[in-house]
Amino acid sequence: MVVKDVRVMSGLALFVLLIALLAYKEWKLHLFDPAFAQGLGLSNRFMNSVYLMCLVLVIVIGIQAVGVILMAALLIIPAVSARYWTHSFGWMLILSALFGGGSGAIGTLLSVYGKGWPTGPFIVISAACLFLISLTLGSSKGLIIMAIQQYRQRRLLHQPRIREQSAMERGRSA
Amino acid sequence: MSYAGWIILTASLVGISCGIVGSLLLLRRMAMMADAISHTVLLGIVTAYLLTRELSGVHMLIGAVIAGLLTALLVQWLHSMGVQQEASIGVVFTSLFAIGVVLIATRVGNAHLDVQHTLMGEITFIPWERVELPWGADIPEAVLMLSIVLVVILAVVIGLYKEWKITAFDPALAASLGLPVTLLHYVFVSMVSVTTVASFDAVGAILVVAMLITPAASAYLWTDRLAVMMALSGLFGILSAISGYSIAVWLDTSISGSMAFATGLVFLLSLIASPRHGLVARLLRPSVPPSP
Predict the structure, then answer these.
(1) CB of A17 within 8 Å of any CB in chain B?
(2) Which residues of A touch B97 (CB under 8 A)?
(3) Mutation for B interface: A59, A66, A76, A92, most B CBs within 10 A
(4) What's the pLDDT at B243?
(5) ipTM value of the model?
(6) Which chain B residues are within 8 Å of A120, Cβ to Cβ?
(7) CA nearest B86 in A: which residue?
(8) How does pLDDT run across B154-172, given as a tens digit for each residue?
């Protein structure tokens, strides 16, 4: 990979980023309620083709970095991980980008330490580790949070409610 | 038998076993799962090699079956956590595949095992890796392994034919009739793993997907009966093996690549000319809706 490749990749990445930012609310509408978007006069077919174009551009960039097969990992894993931290679309975009960039940096760093260690697989493994962390610790859908909530709800359910106690019992406990 | 004969026989065996398993795969809507398993099998093979230091058939088969089952279990587990099915397949198989590649690059080193070989396969060398049979015959190792796998698959599919049929078309009914649907699912996943790893040497992990899905998809255009579909799918597998080999000889190019290309050609022909769901047939009788 030479300077020219890096320039082309940065240019394409900026272009994709620009499209995502400029049409942010259109994307949101198109994703969450396509019928409503069509009712407002937004062409679904046009949005789909723009989306596919962006996808192809991103894949073309990524193939140089991690290869054909592991490209799928970088497309899916950061987004799924981000889903465990937030319910907001905007935050999900930002977090997913952070996770993707972070795992790229960590994986590249790791692969530098060994002789002949491949970069792409290490990037994917660090993304997978980030996913496991998100799965357990995630603040909105993570396993621990869900377990705590379930425990609380169960305790609430099993506590006898005051209304259902008889007057005699209430007098005794007071 | 001649050199070309062994290659065509190997590829035909791959075609038949992949065709039979592939029809069930398609009807159970698990085509993506085949893609996933064909990649994670790499991790199973590498782990088996690290544990036993042997690259023989049996160890590879066991490792591959464990890897396939692990993939299916992990995908199921993530799906039950609320991740979408496709997303969980994507997460699981890419991670396991990456671990396999890292293990190859760091531990296995110079062993007779590399990513290129496992992904693309090398059918050209198969006729030379011979094995002696008890009664004195002398056949390539891959042919022996593929024949055993084919016999096992045929036994499982024919023995449990009506169970496969009912779980493929109506899993809810199968469960309510008391069939062990989950067990059958995992048996099926092991079958896919065994087929994949047996076909490894012949066509490679990526082209196994072509052999699994494309002939079955072509056969589905010709018929609506499961047994006929399996037979046709195996037949298309053999057809693409033979025509793929002739294309490879004619153009002097990669054998496995031209076989996958031949499966694509067969699918294209079926799409155009099949009497039931083909484009021409549909054009000729536009008023009749396609039968369900």
Answers:
(1) no
(2) 69-70, 121, 124
(3) A76
(4) 92
(5) 0.79
(6) 98, 101
(7) A76
(8) 999 999 998 999 998 888 8
Give chain B's domains with CATH numbers: 3-268 (1.10.3470.10)
Say how far residue A20 (Cα) sits from the centre of its chain: 15
Of A121, A127, A141, the CB nearest to B101: A121
Q: Is B223 helix (H, G, I), strand (E, B) or coil?
A: coil
Helix/strand/coil (H, E, C) string of B195-215? Answer: HHHHHHHHHHHHHHHHHHHHH
Q: Taking a C-beta distance cutoff of 8 angstroms, is the pair A66, A119 a contact?
A: yes
Quote the tokens at residue B186.
């995992």
Q: Of the candidates B261, B148, B252, B166, which has an alpha carbon nearest to the alpha carbon of residue B210?
A: B261
Size of interface A-B (CB pairs under 8 A): 63
- B chain contacts of residue A135, beta-carbon cutoff 8 Å: 81
3-state secondary structure B111-143: CCCCHHHHHHCCHHHHHHCEEECCCCCEEEHHH
B90–A75 C-beta distance less than 8 A: yes
Chain B residues with CB within 8 Å of chain A CB: 39, 81-83, 87, 90-91, 94-95, 97-99, 101-102, 105-106
B210: CB partners within 8 A, 6+ apart: B203, B259, B260, B263, B264
| Nearest-by-Cβ selection for A117 from B87, B90, B105 | B105
Per-residue pLDDT tens over the stretch A33-83: 888 988 888 888 898 999 999 999 888 887 876 777 778 888 889 999 998
Per-domain residue ranges of chain A: 1-66, 67-165
- Give A40: exposed, middle or buried? Use CB within 10 Å, 0-12, 13-18, 19+: exposed
What's the pLDDT band for A165 if we cut at 50, 70, 90?
low
**Within 13 Å, how many C-alpha atoms sit on residue B287's CB side?**
0
What pTM, to 2 d.p., does this model score? 0.79
